[in-house]
Design goal:
The protein has about 210 residues and is mostly helical. It is built from 10 helices and no strands.
């Protein structure tokens, strides 16, 4: 059952689309995506079925939109916590911990983002790729900023950035499959070591031909 709401005014001030996404998030916390229905979502969102179809073609489209919103929120947390004036390796470790901490607070949504979305066929795969590309671009941008201070450092290529983000994603997927979605911060030492190794490879004395 959706939670009772004493503050009905707060519902009224949220756009129906946002209420539907919140409803989907709430239902995912109670049951697997395959088991939930549109009726569950609209009940949790306190909107009509007609309103649902005004915004989404089906529950698949609603899940995709929710995953995109989650990725934007998490990327916002990372960007807000990064200090370009600080030691960039330490800053990357700090935002990695913030990223994992943010995700593990919402294990059901993390499972939807990393696993359920891939069951949606080409649309789910395309969304997953777009989300990964956002994090790839963020990592590349931070390396470019660090190159201002570290003369001779090579840029992080799109391929290496993609491989780095893909490796991190695979560690997270493995943790989810092992029912450790609520303990993702435990991955931080491994991810930090991995990212540091990638970043060290860009230095002129350790890079190819350095």
């Amino acid at each position: 059952m959706p939670p009772s709401r004493t503050d009905t005014g707060s519902d009224a001030h949220r756009a129906p689309r946002q209420r539907l996404l919140d409803g989907m998030a709430h239902v995912l916390g109670e049951r697997a995506y395959a088991e939930l229905t549109i009726a569950d979502v609209v009940a949790a969102a306190h909107v009509s079925r007609r309103t649902f179809y005004e915004h989404f073609d089906g529950k698949e489209a609603c899940l995709l939109a929710l995953c995109e919103r989650l990725s934007e929120e998490v990327l916002g947390v990372i960007a807000a916590g990064y200090d370009p004036e600080g030691d960039w390796v330490q800053e990357l470790e700090k935002v990695t911990e913030a990223y994992l901490h943010n995700l593990q607070q919402r294990p059901a949504l993390v499972r939807a983002l990393y696993l359920e979305m891939l069951t949606l066929g080409p649309e789910g795969l395309a969304m997953r790729r777009r989300i990964s590309e956002r994090f790839t671009q963020f990592l590349m941008m931070q390396v470019e900023l660090s190159r201002v201070k570290e003369v001779g450092k090579r840029p992080l290529s799109p391929a290496l950035a993609t491989a780095t983000v893909g490796g991190i994603n695979e560690l997270i997927v493995q943790a989810i499959e092992q029912d450790r979605a609520d303990r993702l911060v435990e991955l931080q030492p491994t991810i930090s070591e991995f990212v540091r190794a990638v970043l060290r490879s860009l230095m002129p004395d350790e890079g190819v031909g350095g």
